[in-house]
Specification:
Layout lengths: L5 H18 L2 H10 L1 H12 L5 H18 L1 H9 L15
Helix pairs in contact: 1-2, 3-4
Length: 96
């Protein structure tokens, strides 16, 4: 994203940071931030890059988003269960 769409990267990082500072969960920020990649790509190309390959860019960004979300599936399960680590918390040690 940095090499091909640096402006979109800035938007995605801003979304990530906003979610991270609210929730203190890196994984939640990552998942929700990347989930917005497809729509943001479409909006960006539609309004600011007319004539650009909007369909190709949007499809590629959605595929990348789905791969990242798939890789975070264990984190998503912990988020839904309420057991995901929050930044700044002391890590729980098993059996102690």
């Amino acid at each position: 994203i940095l090499a091909l769409q640096p402006i979109i990267l800035v938007i995605l990082v801003t979304i990530f940071l906003l979610i991270f500072f609210i929730s203190r969960m890196v994984s939640l920020g990552s998942v929700l931030g990347i989930a917005t990649y497809g729509p943001i790509t479409y909006i960006y190309y539609y309004f600011w890059q007319p004539g650009a390959p909007i369909v190709f860019a949007t499809v590629c960004s959605v595929v990348i988003s789905l791969l990242v979300i798939w890789m975070h599936r264990a984190n998503i399960k912990r988020i839904l269960a309420g057991t995901e680590y929050k930044f700044g918390e002391k890590k729980k040690q098993d059996g102690k």
